[in-house]
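Quick one, tokens below. Sequence please?
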């Protein structure tokens, strides 16, 4: 049904409208929960690319989509875990710069990064 919704709202609102992007983000969440991580990754990547083009890379929705994409990649494990930790460190800096360090999204993302760093993954550990 979310795909139908996306199909209905995209021609009306446009691909870069926050509601259209939020629907794509929800699709990514549901695909990820269903174990369809490749499809979820593609949905998140689309939100990040389209959203950055239309709303700017610092829009809260884009920052959250970047976070979900990075978490998905970290959870896959393997050699990309270190890259995910490094990407999350960049994302935390972006969130703190744009949202402020006390913003709940920035604070929770920073806590997650700290947990990851404490596991020893990433090039800066």
């Amino acid at each position: 049904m979310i795909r139908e919704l996306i199909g209905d709202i995209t021609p009306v609102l446009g691909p870069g409208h926050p509601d259209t992007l939020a629907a794509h983000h929800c699709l990514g969440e549901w695909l990820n929960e269903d174990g369809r991580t490749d499809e979820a990754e593609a949905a998140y990547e689309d939100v990040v690319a389209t959203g950055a083009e239309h709303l700017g890379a610092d829009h809260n929705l884009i920052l959250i989509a970047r976070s979900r994409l990075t978490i998905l990649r970290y959870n896959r494990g393997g050699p990309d875990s270190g890259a995910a930790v490094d990407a999350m460190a960049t994302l935390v800096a972006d969130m703190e710069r744009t949202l402020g360090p006390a913003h709940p999204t920035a604070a929770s993302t920073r806590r997650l990064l700290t947990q990851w760093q404490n596991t020893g993954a990433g090039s800066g550990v």
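Helices lie at 2-13, 18-33, 37-54, 60-76, 80-98, 104-118. The chain has a mean pLDDT of 92.
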